[in-house]
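Usage

Read records sequentially. Each one opens with the input sequence:
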Amino acid sequence: MERKSIGTTARTGEICPESGVWRVGGKPSTTAPIAKGNRMPPYGGGAVTWQLIQYA
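and closes with the structure output:
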């Protein structure tokens, strides 16, 4: 099975396509470990775009 590329993005509510460390762009920013198959969480009370920055 092929991994998704570092830099892959997913929006809040979508299914996480790859286990790893994900980051929200913009300010304030945050990182979170998210497992493949989980729903991407909201941040700061709203929908955001997460970017994969490191494999688990």
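Summary fields computed downstream for this record:
- The longest strand covers residues 49-55.
- The chain has no helices and four strands.
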